[in-house]
Amino acid sequence: MKYKRVLLKLSGEAFLGTRKYGIDPQFLKDIAEEISVIKKKDIQLAIVIGGGNIFRGLSASINGMNRVTADYMGMLATIMNALALQDALESVGVATRVQTAFEIREVAEPFILRRALRHLEKNRVVIFAAGTGNPYFTTDTTAVLRATEIGAEIILKATKVDGVYDKDPEKFSDAVMFKDISYMEVLQRDLKVMDSTAITLSKDNNIPLLVFNLGVKNNISRVLLGDDIGTKIH
Predict the structure, then answer these.
(1) At CA 154, angle to CA 149 and CA 156, rounded to 5?
(2) What pTM, to 2 d.p., does this model score?
(3) What CATH class has 5-233?
């Protein structure tokens, strides 16, 4: 394996699978089975999850809801996704812990860095939920923050497309995919990979990002083996 400790960023939309709302059980089954294979190869894996399949705070605030209230509701949605993924992982024998950015002790641990590191060292998957615990920050920023804190070697951002393109490949047939691109170029071109806060934080802490297609079976394993897929931002 090319990496020892990685952070995987899953969007809430990935949990939709073939559905228009909520959580697709088939997606949970597929991702849990793939992660179970990875864990047999002695990879320390942490995961950050979005909540857009259930509630998106920014969209709600645009439609008139108080932004702080909307963002907290979005954080709660990420906890629901985290618990669903934890259940799926444990059903295939993968030891998993959910840590949340604000306390909800009945269902998950609060985020404590030393405890998270201990879980990773004990070969448990750690799922970080509830974003940063603060409004106005995305789960992309959370992913970079947590990756920095745990000393991850790379952030794997799973998406619906094969990598980073110069324009939206779902709208433009002539969109060109990058194999490598710098943090600064992503910011200057305003490419919608992650929000600018997340990209800047990655740049400041020199944590590479690898954007790849989650929809292709075994792509997570291929990335960890060093196969030449997706786009690397560094």
Answers:
(1) 110
(2) 0.94
(3) alpha beta
